[in-house]
Design brief:
The chain has about 200 residues and is an alpha+beta fold. The chain is built from 4 helices and 9 strands. It binds zinc ion. The site of zinc ion (ZN) has 8 residues, from loops.
Length: about 200
């Protein structure tokens, strides 16, 4: 083999290598481009989660003080919105067993809302340990937010407390509470929704 032929052979081999690597490089870059596009396409169709602030009902300023606009729903609508226990207590004037409710021993700072319509009902600052097994408060957050009705069921004379906006049953109020009001708003945990400060 002469020198010229050997050089030509070497040149041909080098070119083959270059072509092979160029082809491999193009294939890889094509593949990664495709992968990226697919990834982008998937990301575009994935629904972005709704920010919490938009869904938080607490942002509604009309929840602070009852403005006279009542919430009226059919029995079927309440049943769809509430659990069976909540429906029984809120809409059929039921009472949860003493000590069974989730807020009987809650002492965190925050606000208690109506579980049915989210109207503000009680401030944690007015909550006290009554020893009854039901969350107890000495006053509502605003007198306008609750309706007090004489209740003579079960052979007792009691004052029933309802949410002023949706008419849901909350509990009863008694006159054996602590200072400064001397009142004891004896509530069902199932009628309330606590939100921490
Ligand atoms: Zn309500």
């Amino acid at each position: 083999m002469n020198l010229k032929a050997a050089r030509a052979r070497n040149y041909s081999m080098v070119m083959k290598h270059i072509l092979f690597f160029a082809f491999a490089l193009i294939s890889v870059s094509m593949f990664s481009t495709t992968a990226c596009q697919q990834k982008t396409a998937v990301a575009e169709v994935t629904p972005s989660p709704t920010p919490k602030s938009e869904t938080k009902a607490a942002a509604n300023p009309s929840d602070d003080v009852f403005d006279g606009n009542k919430v009226v729903k059919t029995e079927a609508e309440w049943k769809a919105q509430l659990t069976a226990d909540e429906f029984h207590i809120l809409r059929e004037e039921g009472t949860e067993p003493a000590g069974s409710g989730e807020y009987a021993k809650t002492h965190d700072e925050g606000t208690y809302y109506c579980r049915a319509c989210h109207l503000k009902l009680f401030d944690s600052k007015t909550k006290f340990e009554s020893g009854t097994g039901w969350p107890s408060f000495y006053q509502p957050i605003n007198a306008k937010n609750v309706t007090e009705i004489k209740d003579t069921s079960y052979g007792m004379e009691r004052i029933e407390v309802e949410c002023a906006r949706c008419g849901s049953h909350l509990g009863h109020v008694f006159d054996d509470g602590p200072k400064p009001t001397g009142l004891r708003y004896c509530m069902n945990s199932a009628s309330l929704k606590f939100e921490k400060k």
